[in-house]
Amino acid sequence: MIKTLRMTLLGTTSLALLAACGDNTETKSEDSSDKARAFASTYQPQPSETTLITNARIIDGTGQEIDGGSILITDGKITAIGTDVSGDAAITIDAGGKYVTPGIIDIHSHLGDYPTPSVSAHADGNEITSPITSEVYAEHGIWPQDPGFDEALQGGVTTLHVLPGSANLFGGRGVTLRNIPARTVQEMKLPDAPYTLKMACGENPKRVYGNKGGPGSRMGNVAGYRKNWIKAQDYQKKRDKGGDGFKRDLQLETLADVLDGEILVQMHCYRADEMVQILDLAKEFDYKVTTFHHAVEAYKIADYLKDNETCAAMWADWYGFKMESYDGILENIPFVHAEGACAMIHSDDENGIQRLNQEVAKAWAHGNRAGLNISKAEAWQWLSTNPAKALGIIDETGTLEVGKRADVVMWSADPFTTYARPEKVFLDGALMFDTETGLKPKSDFRLGFGE
Amino acid sequence: MTLRKTFTAALLLSAISTTAWAQDYFISDAKLVTNTSQGIVENADLIIRDGKIAQIGTDLTAPANVETISANGSWVTPGLFAPFSRLGLMDIGGEDVTNDTSSGESKTSVSELASDSFNPKAVFVANTRRMGITHAVISPSAAGDSIFGGTGAVINLSGEYDSVEKPSAFIFVQLGENGTRRAGGSRAAALVQLRAALNDAAAYPGRYDGPEDGDALTRQDAAALVKAAKGQMPLMIAADRAMDMLNIIKLKNEYSNLDIIILGAREAWEIADELAAADIKVMVDPHDNLPVSFEAVNARLDNVILLDEAGVDYAISNASALGVQRPATLAQHAGNAVGNGLEWDKAFAAITSTPAKWFGLAGGTVLQGSGATLVVWDGDPLDVTSAPTDMFINGDRQSLESRQTALRDRYNPTSDDTRLFKYR
């Protein structure tokens, strides 16, 4: 064991040396994959049987609905889908016309880093010690025993992105997790999912640091981003050049990885005007904002979002709790979608994550009431497809297509109603939640309270 | 001069619209939820005259000179009644100057009236009204070193200046972790404060011969607690842990007149039989299933269903999901109780007639002769995809427009308006 560890460390050193000498991108990517290995995923799909789900009303996540459809799952992957599917399966499930969908992906969760019970000892989601903490990783604050993970699975959530909070301009790295009952966060990490960087606009950073040396205004926020991107550009050049003089800096490493396009920026931002300022900031430093989170005013600038290929992750009806959220409307998601921009739901909440299908149903209905004509199959993309795109994992999950992980939910009724519940949830083809047999996970924390 | 004339004319107009010439209405072909033993009546017609439901039938003819609203077979229900909220007590929760929900620096507690802080023009009132809510309880919250938040009220959501229907509706008390902190640090201290206050109220005014003779309350706060101490007004107590609720039952055994509503009650299912036997009312949020604190470790999704089975008198709130600020999602929370196994009629009563009854308001039912507080829906009101298409509060037809719909209309992508947004 010790030997292995040492060898790994040696390996790290030699790779780092290689990176230091080289100047081509291949070496650089080796360098970064090596860094990722420091807290590498040990996720293992659970054993699964070859499973054929028949007679289902399938919403596949690509915008299509297939009536009387079947899905074949082999070795945890989707190997066939459509109306004409056959194959030898160990298990055949007759869906009886029920809805079958991709597993839900929540792009904004604090499960694990703000777990329940929400005692002060559990507040591990915000490193409120400096406005610049791009060196921290959300995964180092995640408690895998958060009972919220289990409840989210029962709501059909198979993948989730956990981020640091929004106190800081640069909050730290977010991580994409499989919602598998696990002992360690490494066992939950989706292998090869890109890291993300949480950034925050607006009221939070200036409120938190206004009396602690700044930023104390939105002006200070933007100045803070710019100063640190300049530092990151400098660091990026030094890192590319390498040599003995190069010293690793965790804070700037994250930012330089963004500039290299290896880390996706996920930015907390409410106000329309502010989001467009941030898009300009990204142009100044030649990086991309993948997603604006919360984006309560995204409907006002959907054209900008479309042109910049930046997604918006939104609530269905949360607004009004602070000034920058005052202009929330119930049609935000459908309006952004109708403009041709990339829209999605997010929860940011341990309750909301259990019912994201209802949140989408609300937004969908309000959008159509306002004159749009969006189908359920199209709206489903707000639940799994667009979050998968925004997390850089669309090749792995988010839709029911051949070759993808078999993350599948079978529903008791139309998921666009209050009354529907997931009946079966498959993660990589393995049944993880099943109302028929009572199969469900239970956190260590839930044990022994004298029920 | 001109200005003055216009002003006088406006005054006259407003007087006319609210009282003198109340419009009569005929609602046809409704799937009518009566909330009475009659249950749901299909193809129902209603005549609204002088603000009241003059007639209900299945084959009525529209009277002359009334406006007809065709429900086309869709749902018509009593207005929803949010049993707990802070509606109209703040504009921006995060901006202290706009937030009147609590008063940590004041020297008073029980005697503070939420109705004095209420602003019917806060945008959340109209934003919430258009989701089918016609009435709401508004409650102050405890602050400083008092477990008493103050005196709560019942309002309607017309947004009119006279929309407080019951300025003194209940007294709010905070127990559990939050109340414990305020009382000095232990549950024992919080219960001592509550008992002492009840004793102060029971001994009022005699005990207050001197300037500060109360054990827990000042003179005016003791006076404000008298009715609740006598059971003439509910005492709403926030608590989640089963043991805390058993202590409340003990309190009720000591002060048998108390009319107690427990708010939160995440572990109530554990002592459901005891709560039923003690005739204590319980207000729960059917979304509360997580052990959010050490006083809710046994929270579970079917809490409300187990309470129902035990015969507990319960109402449904949406306190989670920012519901206290914006109770617009109330129907969704009741709908989820149905999704988890509660009967539809019971869940619906828990957000209409049950809280109306608790706080002493007529309403929550559709009966001949009762005030017309009704919502016409485009679908099942407990389904998230449904919304109101029409609404009446006390016979007055309501606007379903709000600041949110104004923003919606300005930025609607289907609009062919090409003017700059600020001109739309």
Topology:
The complex is a heterodimer of chains A (451) and B (424).
Chain A (H helix, E strand, L loop, with lengths): L1 H20 L3 H12 L14 E9 L5 E10 L2 E6 L8 E4 L4 E4 L1 E6 L37 H8 L2 E6 L7 E9 L17 E5 L2 H7 L8 H24 L8 H10 L4 E6 L2 H13 L4 E6 L7 H7 L2 E4 L17 H7 L4 E3 L10 H14 L6 H4 L5 H6 L17 E4 L10 E6 L2 E5 L17
Parallel strand pairs in A: 1-4, 1-5, 6-7, 9-10, 10-11, 11-12, 12-13
Antiparallel strand pairs in A: 1-2, 2-3, 5-14, 7-8, 8-9, 14-15, 15-16
Chain B lengths: L1 H19 L4 E9 L6 E10 L2 E6 L9 E4 L4 E4 L1 E3 L31 H4 L5 H7 L3 E6 L9 E9 L7 E11 L1 H8 L3 H16 L16 H11 L5 E5 L2 H13 L5 E5 L7 H6 L3 E4 L18 H7 L4 E3 L13 H10 L4 H6 L3 H6 L15 E4 L10 E6 L2 E2 L5 H9 L13
Parallel strand pairs in B: 1-4, 1-5, 6-7, 9-10, 10-11, 11-12, 12-13
Antiparallel strand pairs in B: 1-2, 2-3, 5-14, 7-8, 8-9, 14-15, 15-16
Helix pairs in contact in B: 4-5, 5-6
List keywords for this structure.
heterodimer, A: alpha/beta, TIM Barrel, 16 strands, disordered N terminus, B: alpha/beta, 2 domains, eight-stranded mixed beta sheet, 13 helices, globular
Quick summary:
The complex is a heterodimer of chains A (451) and B (424). Chain A is α/β, with parallel strands linked by helices. Chain A has helices at 2-21, 25-36, 147-154, 203-209, 218-241, 250-259, 272-284, 302-308, 332-338, 356-369, 376-379, 385-390; strands at 51-59, 65-74, 77-82, 91-94, 99-102, 104-109, 157-162, 170-178, 196-200, 264-269, 289-294, 311-314, 343-345, 408-411, 422-427, 430-434.
What does this structure look like?
The complex is a heterodimer of chains A (451) and B (424). Chain A is of the alpha/beta class and 451 residues long. Chain A has a domain at 100-399: TIM Barrel (Alpha-Beta Barrel). Chain A has twelve helices and 16 strands. In chain A, the strands form two sheets. In chain A, strands 1, 2, 3, 4, 5, 14, 15 and 16 form an eight-stranded mixed β-sheet that branches. Chain A has an eight-stranded mixed β-sheet with strand order 6-7-8-9-10-11-12-13. The longest helix of chain A has 24 residues, at 218-241. Chain A is globular, with a radius of gyration of 22 Å. Mean pLDDT of chain A is 93; it is low at 1-33. Chain B has helices spanning 2-20, 114-117, 123-129, 176-183, 187-202, 219-229, 242-254, 272-277, 303-309, 330-339, 344-349, 353-358, 403-411, and strands spanning 25-33, 40-49, 52-57, 67-70, 75-78, 80-82, 133-138, 148-156, 164-174, 235-239, 260-264, 281-284, 314-316, 374-377, 388-393, 396-397. The longest helix of chain B is centred in the N-terminal third of the chain and has 19 residues, at 2-20. In chain B, helix 4 (176-183) packs across helix 5 and helix 5 crosses helix 6 (219-229). Chain B is globular, with a radius of gyration of 23 Å. In chain B, the strands form two sheets. In chain B, strands 1, 2, 3, 4, 5, 14, 15 and 16 form an eight-stranded mixed β-sheet that branches. Chain B has an eight-stranded mixed β-sheet with strand order 6-7-8-9-10-11-12-13. Mean pLDDT of chain B is 93; it is low at 1-20. Chain B is built from 13 helices and 16 strands. In chain B, helix 8 links the parallel strand 11 and strand 12 (281-284). By secondary structure, chain B is an alpha/beta fold. Chain B folds into two domains: 22-78 and 365-424, Urease, subunit C, domain 1 (Roll); 80-363, TIM Barrel (Alpha-Beta Barrel), CATH 3.20.20.140. Chain B starts with a helix and ends in a 13-residue tail after the last helix.
